[in-house]
Specification:
The protein is an alpha/beta fold. The protein contains 6 helices and 8 strands. It is elongated.
Amino acid sequence: MKKTDIVILVSQKYVKEPYVDDIALKYLLEKKGCKTEIVAWDDLDYDFSLTHIALIRSCWDYDQRICEFIKKMKLIAQQTRLINPIDMILQNTNKLYLKKLKTVGVEIVPTVFISNLKEIEPTLQTIEWDEVIIKPVISASGRNTYKIKKQDNGLCYGSTAKTQKLNPLHPLRGHPPQGGN
């Protein structure tokens, strides 16, 4: 017999102090009659076979422990229904999936992928963007994400991850660029 309807998966540090969104979700699910728990995705003692659904939410440390995270998600998927499907989770942990989306006609933010940090400076010389957002393709919570100016040639960029993605800095939709009307 299942003891929990839905488990909200979070990073260990968010079990004791959950994000307000996860608290609100738990409240709404319980209001609908679902027995719900907030559980660390890497909890070694939790028996996921005793829940109906595991829902990935605030797992903001997955990128620092990617192999462990993937292994654990596969294990959870064998024990209960994991939302989203394991194949989608595996694909989305690495932002290279954006390349595939683009090839099938999905519009994405202009993106240049590089596979070596030595490519940053020459790549900056070939793009038309004055300001660039650069980040590892496996990252979360804005970790190792930098805004750089093209004229800096990437000299201030501090990430050590090999594969990166570069995007132009876009003003928020509906807001004029700085200095604009």
